[in-house]
Design a protein that fits this description.
Elements lengths: L2 H7 L17 E3 L2 H4 L6 E3 L2 E5 L3 H12 L4 H14 L20 E6 L5 E7 L5 H11 L4 E3 H10 L10 H10 L17 E6 L5 E7 L20 E4 L3 E7 L1 H7 L1 H10 L4 H14 L9 E7 L4 E5 L5 E6 L2 E6 L1 E2 L3
Parallel strand pairs: 5-6, 12-15
Antiparallel strand pairs: 1-2, 3-7, 3-13, 4-5, 4-8, 7-8, 9-10, 10-11, 11-12, 13-14
Bound molecules: N-hydroxy-L-asparagine (SD4).
Amino acid sequence: MKRRKFLKNSSTATAALVATPFLTSCKEEVNPSKAGVAANTKAIYPIVICTWDFLNASTKAWEVLSSGGNALDAIEQGVKVEEDDVTNQTVGTGGRPDRDGTVTLDACIMDKDGNCGAVLAMENIANPISVARKVMEDTPHVMLAGQGAEQFAYEKGFKKVNLLTEQSRLEWWEWKKTSEYKPIINIENHDTIGMLAIDKNGDIAGGCTTSGMGYKMAGRVGDSPIIGAGLFVDNEIGGATATGMGEEVVRTVGSFLIVELMRQGKSPQEACEEGVKRIMAKNEGRNDFQIGFIAINKKGEIGGYCIQPGFTYRTYSEEGHINNPSESYVS
Ligand code: SD4
């Protein structure tokens, strides 16, 4: 589904006109042979898109983009808003702990040149997206995990903080009474932020950050910090990112798959739908988990699709900010 059609159909759309003084030349011809799109179409950017209804995060990213900033900065600044929001129990400070009561954070970031960085199962550091960016920019590696990631963060000047809020500690204590690992659809696997942005130059970047599945086993890592699974960007084609049951996204290398499907000519919407279908094909008869994908192509067209009803994704562009209800595989 094309973005304009989606906006028109969106019953919960909350479009608001915004001042965009730097947006005088945001429409540009796209090379159709590279982007897999029809000839003579216009690109619309800057634009930011993120999983779930993160108005504050997308607004922050839009502030960066609309004042001429680049997509990578917009991503880092945008998702940090959720990392710092203690009421979001799936990202950053305030995230739900693992079953032993330890909060561990996962994040990755990817730029227009295919550079990427990630931290996995990192404790005690409030902004994993910024550490992931440092891994990308200041090391010869792509991923740092656990204590290595934490140590690296201290070397880069990050402070040690307590990520476990009283609210999350009390809920974990309550959970321990049954100790049943059974993530509740759209609740316990909710609110990971995956974000994709195109800046005024038409360059794409993306990021994804999470505390992972609540009450997971110690050391468990999902899709979110895994390049290709929770996030993938190819500046010639577009980007994709995921939220939900990470194990299933990893098994399908979901975000890479969606970008490759766009390379073959599918729209972002068609590619997200195919991504979900591939997952469901491996899970015949299973209907107890949620995954949501979002994607954007070089034109700034967007798409989103999920397994269960309830997933939404937010866009912010010169056309305003919109909360898009996603269509779902299961009705
Ligand atoms: C994970 N994909 O760790 C993440 C969880 C998530 O919204 O997306 N929550 O598997």
